[in-house]
Every structure is written in C-alpha cells, then in structure tokens.
Amino acid sequence: MPRRISSKGNHASGINRREWLGMLGVGSTMALAGCLGGDDDDDDGDGDDDGEDAPEAGADEPDPLDLSQDPPEVSGEYHATQASSFDTINPIYNTEAGAGTAIGYALDQGYTFDFDNEVVPLLFEDIYTEDEGETWVIEFRDNLEFSDPYGQYTAEDYVYYVQEIHQSDTFPSANSPDWAGVEIEQTGELEAVATPPNPNIIWPETFAPLEYPIPKELLEPYVDAEDSEGLQQDEELLDLSFNGNLGPYNLEEWIRDGGTQYSRNDEYYLRDLADEYPMFGEAPYFETAQIEIIEEESSRIAAIETGETDNVPLPPDRGEQFIEDEDTMVVLEPTPFNTILSVNMRDNGWTAGPGNLFRVKEFRQALAAAIDKFEYIEGIANGFADPHYTWQPEFSEWFPGTDDLTLWGNPEEGVYGEEARDLVEEALDQIDEDYSYDGDVLVGPDDNQVELEIYYNAASDTQELAVDFYNNQLEQNIGITLDTNAIDGTTFSENYWSADPEGGTDTIDGEEVEWDAPTPNNPGPRSVTPDEEWDMATIFGLNTYPRNPLTNDVFFEGPNSSYNPVGYYPEFDAEGIIQNMRNAGTRDELRDAAAELFANLNEEQPYIMISFGDDIEAYNPAVRGPVPEFSNGWDFPAWHKDE
Fold this sequence. Notes:
By secondary structure, the protein is α+β, with helices and mostly antiparallel strands.
C-alpha cells in the first residue's frame, strides 16, 4: 500500500543542513523558530509523568484553532519580536532560523506537521512511496503561481532548482547536503520522482524534500553564466518579490537591522483548501505583519508589557510573572534541546589526577544519580522544564516509556543520593589508579579531595546558578567538588569543544577503529584533543531530534561518529542498532529499534542528562492560534485576533 504523507511518518538517517543548523543550543534555551514548520510534536510514547508539572499558562490561554470553523474577520497587524537580526533572506542561502521565519511569512514549502504529528500538504498535493522508501513520488498542487512574469510553479521548477543549484558544484547552497546522492527527475507537469541514496520509509520527515519555490526562469541566467555571487545578491531573491500566491504575506520591506514588514497576500493559494479546512478559506487574517528586531532583552519585555508587540520570548526568571499577568498570554512550547552536563572523556579530560573516571559507565551513572532533577527544575529552571532520562523528550513518539528506563536523579521513583556513592565504588573497582573514599570525601592518589573544573557560559545567569547547584549535589552525594569557571561561549567552542581534525586509530574492545573522516567536533580518537583541557561543561545543550530519531546517528553510531567532542565510546552495539533503524520497513520496526537505542543511552549517559526546557512565549491575549505544543505555528495563516 502506498505510504502517503497524510499518514504518520518518520525521518531518515544521516544529517542534513537543517539538522546541523539546529543541532546546538546555547544554554539549552535556543529553539527553532518559524511558522508553517514546527519541528516535532507527537506523544505516542507511554512515558509516565514522573515529577512535578511545570507552571501552567494562564487560564485565558486559547485552545488550538478549530480549522473546520468559518473564517474570522480580516483586520489589524501581527507584530512579532526577535532578538537578533539576520544576514540574508535569500531563501537559497539563508542559514539562520530567524531569517527562516521571515522568509516563511512570504513563502510556503511543501508540507508541515500538525499537532498530531500528521503531515499537512502545502505546496505538495502529496508525497508518497510505494516501495518501502526506495523512491518517493512528489505531486504538486495545480493552483500555484509565481508573480509575473514567471507563471505557474510546477515540478520543472522544483527539479531544476535541485539539479542546477543544490546538486551543482558551482552553487553550493545551504541545502546541498540534503540532495547528495539523490536522483530526481520530472515525470509530469506536476509530478517528480526522487530516489534517495538509501531506501528510507521516513524521507519526508528528514525535511530534505522541503524547498522554497524558486522560478526556473529566475535561476537560468545565473546557472548559464555560472554566477554564484550574482545569485546570492539577486534583488528578487532578497525581496521575495516573485512569491505570487505562494505565501500568506507579501514582503514590503526588509530593514537590515530592524526587521521585516509585510502586507496581506490577497491571492494566497491555501484558500483553495477551504473544503478541507474552512478556516483557511480567507487566510491570512491580518492586514499587515511585522517582525521587529529588538536586541535588548529589557526592551523586548517592555514591548509586550505595554502592548507594543504581539509576541516576545521570555527568560525563565520572568515566566511566572507574566503567567500571573492577565494582560499577557504565556504559552510554554516544549523543545527538543536538552540541558546536559558534558564530561570530557578525551585525554585532556579529568584533570584531578591520573586516569579518567568519566570513561567508566558507572561513574557517569553516579553523576546522573547524584543530581536531583526535580530540585534543578524547580530551583534553577523556575519550573519550566521536564526531567531528561534518555535522548528523547517524553512528547516524542520515539520515547520508549519510563518503564524501560532507569530514572537517574529521581528521588522518589529512581536512583538518587546514597545510591550514587555505590555507583562510584563500582567505578573505582574498574580502574587501576588509587582513588578511594576518606569518609564522605572522594580522594585521589595524592590524598586530596577530587576537584574537577566545570565551565559555564558567562552570559547565562541560569548556568551560573546551575553549576553552583551541581557542585552542592555532587559534594553531598559523591564527595567531589567543582571549580566553577565562567567563559565566553565562542571561546569555549573554539578552544575546548572542537579541535583540528587529525584522524587516527584506537583499539576498542579488541578491535581497531579508524577515524577516516574526522571533523572538528570529532577530530580523532581520545588522544586527539582541543587546545585547552577541561573536565565538565554546561555551555551547550543539544538537539535530540524527536521527529527523526535516526539523526542521532551523528552523535552515537560509534566512536568515530560525526559529532563526538566528548570522546564517547559506546559499550553497546550502537552501529548495529542504528543500522536496524535504517533498515526498518515499517514504523513499528523503527520504533522497536529506536527503543533499544534510547534504553542503552539511558544506561550509558554519554552526556549527563538533566532536563528538557520549555520556550516561554508571551503573546497578546487577543491573538488566537498559539498553543503549548511542539508544532506551535503550523497553522499560522489562520491566526487572528479576537478583540
């Protein structure tokens, strides 16, 4: 039976440019912004609620829009606020999430995901496979028009864009890695067929097929002249004036450091879906829209307080204040970025003496068991987080369920406190160096208490509080102490987290492993180290990719995976399990293999997992549409104000 995008799907193996861009969160508070393209939101897992709930948003928070209702009135403006400006809104070359939001106001892509994780067709009429992911058929709607003089958007535009830009050595674009090895051909005016390099039952959810519509006739002069620089500077691409009926709004102005301004698109194609979604029948419902850049946090917050804007992200320490404010609607959006404690298993880690206890699984378990997750969530994250047990949030359908996991750092139902000390004792039995307990204090061969350095982002008050909390917990429960160090995030990234790729080999479990494609974030075996030594860090949170579990192969497929700054060597058959995930012919097969991967990561704690935070979004309470879901914003064309 064909697998259509209207049925639940998954993602593919490998990591594309969208996923690389979204991999790293600074202080685990970064989220991917955008309308018509939220990242992941399905809770088919059977995870229990194992802790206190985060604060709930105000009583006036609206329910999700009922798209079966009649269209509302068109009126007013939607005014959003961002903290950072963007370098370009050329859709071919943009690599910034904020600019992606700005482009998304004027141009749709092929599909999006709703709150049930169902794929909702947009520019695509359908995308499906009939051969278990070997080939994918893409069908385009027949009512898609560019602005004059470009005419109808068809499969020819899509295929030309992929072949002549993304798959060309002359025009390396942000999307080029998505299309490496993919064969694509036009098979009809409104149909194309794509063949990924490997069969993939979840190709749509890799986001690889998602492209902005670009007219072939706009691209041809630059392709013929092999003029990459000219394409980057093309005025039509920079002002999105070719968008025709392909997006809810028309870009009126891009103020380079100030934001973007839009007018309503009276010809928006999505209105033709009114039979299925009546509320789209007159979309969009704002006469104008604006994205304003306000860099100063206090000024952004003042803008929502005074009603000068309709949406502002809030820091955790201001969330409760605005939840209690009847003049503001607070929406808590779950995110895939985690709060983790990174431990350095490379040769320049563990500066407390000989050996490296971070390499011992039981010691990493001890660290996880020594930190009370719920005390962290309430005391440091102000309640705006959930416990993190394995490399998926509980809202992910790939979360295996807490019955299959050890609940490290859970004082009520898991492993915490004195049990952490027992795990350290187990770890000490596995090393040759002379570490032992003197009473409640872990001492090294020099008989001094083990002291480790921990680095945190100097710009983050939350991280500063967190490292003090970790210090207290680790001293109390396993007898070590931390030397806390503030550092600029960029400095840490360049000098501590990454290194010049060298490659090399290492013998692991009796087998020789070669680093034949080293990267700055996995430069070689543990003997290849960054310029500066370090023990522990809270600088970065990482994306767990709850829509595409296979993307996690870049972290965990083996010692020489693409992204392994900490020098983690799996002690389970990670490569075999991930290959089983790639070979899955059904969703159930993929779910079973993913559950095995995430159960093993729960045991091994390659990064010490603490929590998943929420994005705290403050809205004008008159706005209807925002909801506390991972896919918040997928139905943005139907948002409106009820005043």
